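> call design_seq(struct)
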């Protein structure tokens, strides 16, 4: 099979399973936990670094929220098992500075928990696997968009970076930001992020301290996020408050 078709086939396969394949990295995390220790032997310093790492992940979440709140329905890769779906070509807002803002966001979201382990090799492995993984997904997506939108896609691709953003190319989004749409689409991402951080913090502390340790900071953050998650889930499942036509 020619390389172009092979890369597209691999990208489609990864795209359909992109929500589950990251769990294959659990053995690497287990090894990183085995080697985990507090930087400079200080739990307080470890907590400060963890908050900085959380900030990196929240920056990724902010990008996802902004993209979700300014794009129409059936765009921006919301689909998984059905393959590629795009009724519109997003070229404004975040899509005017990078063609793949959601994948940039995912890089930052995952980098925060990876940095938690203070392990240089784990960071390198994460960045390498992310590049190999999403390179193929991006290739398959762009082949789909090139076929569907033709010259409109090519003109956008020529002026817009594939991944690293160029803020000089910013163009205001066609649609105004809608907080209800952003909330409906990304409230689970926030909850999952805090669950991951809280879990790895507790496991790391337990391995070092040889006892169960519950940091008040993470307990408060987890509790508030859980209450927020439950409230939004009720609004989404039981009401039409978060529904916006065409979003």
């Amino acid at each position: 099979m020619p390389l172009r078709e092979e890369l597209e086939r691999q990208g489609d396969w990864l795209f359909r399973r992109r929500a589950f394949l990251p769990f294959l990295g659990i053995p690497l995390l287990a090894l990183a936990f085995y080697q985990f220790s507090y930087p400079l032997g200080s739990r307080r310093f470890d907590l400060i670094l963890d908050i900085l790492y959380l900030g990196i992940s929240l920056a990724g979440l902010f990008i996802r929220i902004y993209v979700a709140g300014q794009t129409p329905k059936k765009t921006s890769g919301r689909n998984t098992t059905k393959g590629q779906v795009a009724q519109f070509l997003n070229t404004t807002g975040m899509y005017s500075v990078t063609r793949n803002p959601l994948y940039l966001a995912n890089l930052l979201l995952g980098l925060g928990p990876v940095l938690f382990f203070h392990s240089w090799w784990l960071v390198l492995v994460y960045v390498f696997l992310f590049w190999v993984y999403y390179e193929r997904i991006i290739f398959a997506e762009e082949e789909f968009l090139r076929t569907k939108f033709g010259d409109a896609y090519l003109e956008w691709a020529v002026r817009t970076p594939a991944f690293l953003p160029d803020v000089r190319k910013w163009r205001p989004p066609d649609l105004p930001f809608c907080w209800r749409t952003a909330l409906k689409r990304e409230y689970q991402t926030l909850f999952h992020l805090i669950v991951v951080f809280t879990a790895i913090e507790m496991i790391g502390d337990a391995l070092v301290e040889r006892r169960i340790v519950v940091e008040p900071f993470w307990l408060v953050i987890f509790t508030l996020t859980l209450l927020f998650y439950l409230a939004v889930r009720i609004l989404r499942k039981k009401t039409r408050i978060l529904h916006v036509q065409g979003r």
